[in-house]
Amino acid sequence: MPSPLVSVICGSRSDLEAVEKGVAVLTDLAIPYELRIISAHRAPALLERYVQAADDRGVRVFICAAGLAAHLAGAVAARTSWPVIGLPMPGGVGGGLDALLSTVQMPPGVPVATVGLGNSRNAALLAAQILAISDTALAERVVAFRAAQTRAVEDDPLNEGL
Ligand code: RP5
Known about the structure:
Blueprint: E1 6-10, H1 16-28, E2 33-37, H2 44-57, E3 61-66, H3 72-77, E4 84-88, H4 97-104, E5 113-114, H5 120-132, H6 136-154
Parallel strand pairs: 1-2, 1-3, 3-4, 4-5
Helix pairs in contact: 1-5, 5-6
């Protein structure tokens, strides 16, 4: 079993369904990952221990899914120098505007690359593109993934003849 390169952390079990599509992308691209449920607010000591250990074990990108006062991505970014991708969950105030702003509005010096509300596919693809910088085989798989996505649009029956 290869050592995980990506850690997907959910703030709650209630976030699991939303990360499924992203996890499927990581699987499609053969990126080893691990999935954890650790709340930044309800289990801060566990989060502290986990991020340190994951970093030491070779995790190189963290994807953090959280809603409401979504501090998970920021709390992880404060504890690692590897890239952190924030995945705000929809459903709170303004349909998730609370989580979006909590995730994206990091203080200068501690960035979180934030994707759209619930857009776990983009979180996974961004993680893949970051890892592909130093992995030629993965870069080729990302290009193939994008080409397949383009073909799916071109081959849509409603586009026949275009
Ligand atoms: C956040 O609060 C979680 O990430 C989740 O999106 C939201 C609600 O959590 P639960 O009350 O469903 O555990 O911390």
